[in-house]
Each structure stands twice: as structure tokens, then as C-alpha cells.
Specification:
It contains 5 helices and 13 strands. By secondary structure, the protein is α+β, with helices and mostly antiparallel strands. The protein folds into 2 domains: 21-138, Fusion Protein Consisting Of Minor Coat Protein, Glycine Rich Linker, Tola, And A His Tag, Chain: A, Domain 2; 147-249, Immunoglobulin-like, CATH 2.60.40. Strands 1, 2, 3, 4 and 5 form a 5-stranded mixed β-sheet that branches. A 5-stranded mixed β-sheet has the order 7-13-12-10-11.
Length: 250
């Protein structure tokens, strides 16, 4: 039987604030939501956060269905989904940020929509809406640890989880590179830029250089959108995706 791996981590995107407090969606709060099954631990306890993360991974591993068509084609990659945990712990507003085709995106949406009620996030003593982004990696090989962690993206000094559109325009003609843990520069087989603004998604690809299509993505960025860079490199016969996601600021 083919095996697949899930890599799970939380990335936070820009919140959409409205006039009425009960409609505000947060991305960073005093206490982030907890996945079901860790009620025995005290809120704020590091053990409870670890329990929540492991419970989420276990749920996805047990319930995510790898599409047969994607398996047959050997399709692998990372799907990004976004959703909101509301004041009652219900999962709402699920949508795709990035898909890889082969019905993997729909499979990711199906599994998050099947999730049980969470413990809601808390801020200033009140339950609030919290927006989360979740990467789910579809892989036909079992790999521990995630080998992509051994590779680092370098581009004009870009760092952190936020980047300004002005800065991106300044470095757009600067070569982008990927280096392994020993500092060796890797050959980029494919480079893609993508952005997501509310429910709009656009992407472009190249053979490793920053071509006109990728530059157009930079031009289309808006403050508050999510900008992702995905570089595919080859090592030891395996293709490895190195991915970074940024929140776009002024």
C-alpha cells in the first residue's frame, strides 16, 4: 500500500477587521484554538498545545483520503487551506489557498470540513473568531524528518513572515537561490510565485529564473494578501519543494 506523509504547521494571515466586534476575525490572540481531545490539560499549558498539534496531525492522518487519480499519476505536493474557528469552536469559511491538482485540494477541504468542534481561541477573556492557514503535504513516500527543512531560500535578504510590496519590487530583478544545510547552491528545476487575496488566487511558474510571469504576480499583490514562493530542487533523485509564505504589507 502506498504511504503518504502530512506536514502540519500553522501560518497566520492578515485578519479582516470590521466595524462590529462580533464579526472581527483575528490571526493572533492570547490563546489560539485547541483541537479536540486535550481538555484534560490546563489552558495555556505547553503540554496542551503539544497535545492539540499531535491530535490534529493524527486526525488528518486517519481521515485524509489520498485521491486515487493523484496516486496513479504519482502526484505529490503541498495543499494550503484556510479556515476560521468561530466563538463556538465551529470550523467556518474553509477555502483553498493553493492546490496541486488531482483532486488533492478537494480532499484537503473534505477532511477539514469533517473536523469535530475545536476549543475556541480566547482574547481579553472572551471567545473570538480566529483564522488559520494549514499546509497539508501529499507524499507517496514516508520521510522523517521533512527533508525540505534542510534547504533555505535566499532572495534579496527576505526574511520573517511578512514582506512589503515595495521591498519585493526592489528585489524583483535579484536572483533567487536555494542552498542546502552545507551552504551548497541547488539548481532550481521549477520556481512559482502565487498570491491569494480573499478568494482570488493567481500563480505563475518558471524554470528557475524570475521571468515576466512571476514579475506580474509581484505587480498584482495587494496589502493584506498572501504571497507564496515555491522552489523545486532535486537531490539524490528526489524532487523537494521549498516553500515560503508571506503576508504582504505596505
Amino acid at each position: 500500500m502506498m504511504k503518504f506523509k502530512l506536514t502540519v504547521l500553522f501560518l497566520f494571515c492578515i485578519c479582516y477587521a470590521y466595524a462590529q466586534p462580533d464579526t472581527e476575525v483575528h490571526t493572533q490572540v492570547e490563546q489560539m484554538p485547541y483541537f479536540k481531545g486535550c481538555e484534560a490539560y490546563d489552558n495555556g499549558d505547553e503540554q496542551k498545545r503539544n497535545c492539540s498539534n499531535q491530535a490534529l496531525i493524527a486526525y488528518l492522518a486517519n481521515h485524509l483520503i489520498y485521491p486515487a487519480g493523484a496516486k496513479a499519476k504519482g502526484l505529490e505536493g503541498t495543499v494550503y487551506v484556510s479556515f476560521v474557528i468561530d466563538e463556538n469552536g465551529m470550523l467556518t469559511q474553509p477555502y483553498l489557498i493553493r492546490d496541486i491538482g488531482g483532486e488533492c485540494g478537494q480532499a484537503a477541504l473534505n477532511v477539514i470540513q469533517s473536523m469535530p468542534r475545536w476549543e475556541p481561541g480566547m482574547h481579553n477573556g472572551q471567545a473570538v473568531k480566529v483564522k488559520l492557514n494549514l499546509p497539508i503535504q501529499f507524499s507517496l513516500k514516508s520521510q522523517e524528518p521533512d527533508v525540505s527543512d534542510n534547504y533555505t531560500l535566499f532572495w534579496g535578504g527576505i526574511k520573517g513572515e511578512k514582506v512589503s510590496k515595495t521591498f519585493l519590487k526592489q528585489i524583483v530583478d535579484t536572483p533567487l537561490s536555494i542552498r542546502d544545510q552545507f551552504g551548497n547552491q541547488m539548481i532550481i528545476n521549477e520556481l512559482s510565485f502565487a498570491y491569494q487575496w480573499k478568494r482570488k488566487f493567481r500563480s505563475a511558474k518558471s524554470r528557475g529564473d524570475i521571468n515576466k510571469g512571476l514579475k506580474k504576480i509581484i505587480k498584482k499583490l495587494r496589502v493584506g494578501s498572501l504571497f507564496s514562493i515555491t522552489a523545486t530542487v532535486q537531490a539524490g533523485g528526489d524532487f523537494i519543494e521549498v516553500n515560503r509564505i508571506f503576508e504582504v504589507t505596505e
